[in-house]
Specification:
Elements lengths: L4 E5 L4 H6 L7 E6 L10 E4 L7 H12 L3 E4 L6 H4 L4 H25 L6 E5 L25 H16 L7 E7 L1 E3 L6 H7 L7 H8 L6 E4 L2 H5 L1 E2 L1 E3 H13 L7 E6 L6 E2 H8 L3 E4 L2 H13 L10 H5 L7 H7 L3 H4 L4 H7 L9
Parallel strand pairs: 1-2, 1-4, 2-3, 4-5, 5-6, 6-11, 7-10, 8-13
Antiparallel strand pairs: 9-12
Pfam families: Epimerase
Protein name: NAD-dependent epimerase/dehydratase
InterPro entries: Epimerase_deHydtase, Lipid_A_modif_metabolic_enz, NAD(P)-bd_dom_sf
Length: about 350
């Protein structure tokens, strides 16, 4: 009997590479700009979702393969690492690209009897905005601002909400994960705790070669050390997606889930200690932004200055709905506590200066 077909966009990203080995019971079609480095079996399709023509290409792929599910991971998170520095180009991939994939699903389900039954999209905690008043639920307003990545996650989240009713027999899932953690993860916040000089300039390259770390930076004031944050291990996130694929589609058209590790949040101060980072304090958020702006323009750091609110604010989520959704499988899917997920990000750290 033929395996059910799952299409995964953004297959070459970190989450895609962690998800792929879990999908052995499926025939996987990976979509991306470049093929993933993997030993797992898959069919790869090169496609640029930032182009309008990708809508038809995706529709034909879904129609011809009779895919039962689409996992939409394609998203530009780090403009420096991906080389997508133009904001309009980034928006076309992130927001318009999400709309194009959903349009393709809608059209494929209109023209075939055995169409796509599940559409899974990872949004982000950043869609809620920084410095939240408490542990937000899935009904809390999306108020991302300042940081393009966060704004695009908010807008893409809204695209999925608006288009889900038109997917014709397909259940949609919006997952709002907290910051990814784990030994394989590279992102803004983890980079700040790692002190990674991950810019493209010669000075950054020299620092990496010499094993030097940038200090972690926070504004002065105890409240910034006391601010709390959650994490989700990228492998747990992959297991959440596999769990959804293995269960029957929901009767409702849209399911929204906050996703974070088990246990209590960490304070920023505790994160600094666990990362063994050197901490410097600056007079305020304005000064922090100026330092990040200097490091950005000097191509020493890949952390954009617009990330300051998300690096200095408190934002935590209520994940009770996720616990109920996973039921007795909760601890088998979410295997890492928040603290253990964060600690795993530093287990491969070499001695640095």
């Amino acid at each position: 009997m033929a395996k059910p077909v799952v299409v995964v966009t953004g297959i070459s990203g970190n989450l895609g590479s962690r998800l792929l080995p879990l999908l052995g019971s499926y025939s996987v079609i990976g979509v991306d700009m470049a093929p993933p480095q993997t030993d797992s079996e898959l069919r790869f399709e090169r496609l640029d979702l930032g182009q309008e023509s990708s809508t038809r290409a995706m529709y034909e792929l879904l129609r011809d393969t009779h895919a039962c599910a689409v996992v939409h991971l394609a998203f530009v998170i780090d403009p420096v690492r991906t080389g997508v520095l133009d904001l309009e180009r980034m928006w076309q991939i992130n927001v318009a690209g999400t709309a194009r994939v959903m349009e393709a699903v809608t059209e494929a389900n209109r023209t075939t009897d055995d169409g796509v039954k599940q559409f899974i999209f990872p949004s982000s905690v950043s869609a809620y905005g920084p410095n939240l008043p408490g542990a937000v639920t899935e009904e809390s307003p999306l108020a991302a601002h300042t940081l393009p990545y966060a704004i695009h996650k908010k807008e893409s989240d809204e695209v999925v909400q608006q288009r889900s009713p038109a997917l014709r027999g397909c259940s949609s899932y919006i997952l709002r994960p907290h910051i990814f953690a784990g030994a394989s993860v590279e992102n803004y916040l983890m980079g700040a705790f790692h002190g990674t000089p991950d810019g493209k300039g010669a000075r950054a390259e020299k620092m990496r070669r010499e094993g030097k770390r940038l200090p972690c930076m926070l504004p002065r004031g105890q409240q910034y050390l006391d601010n709390k944050i959650q994490f989700i291990h990228v492998d747990d996130m992959a297991r959440v997606i596999r769990h959804i694929l293995q269960r029957e589609p929901e009767t409702q058209r849209l399911t929204v889930l906050n996703v974070a590790g088990r246990g209590e949040p960490l304070t920023f101060g505790r994160c600094v200690e666990m990362a063994r980072a050197k901490l410097i304090r600056v007079p305020g958020k304005w000064a922090m932004r100026q330092v990040l702006k200097f490091l950005w323009w000097q191509q020493i750091s890949a952390i954009p200055p617009e990330a300051v609110p998300y690096m200095s604010g408190q934002y935590i989520m209520n994940t009770e709905r996720l616990r109920r959704f996973l039921g007795p499988e909760y601890e088998d899917v979410i295997r890492y506590t928040i603290a253990d997920a964060f600690a795993d990000s530093f287990r491969n750290n070499a001695t640095s200066k």
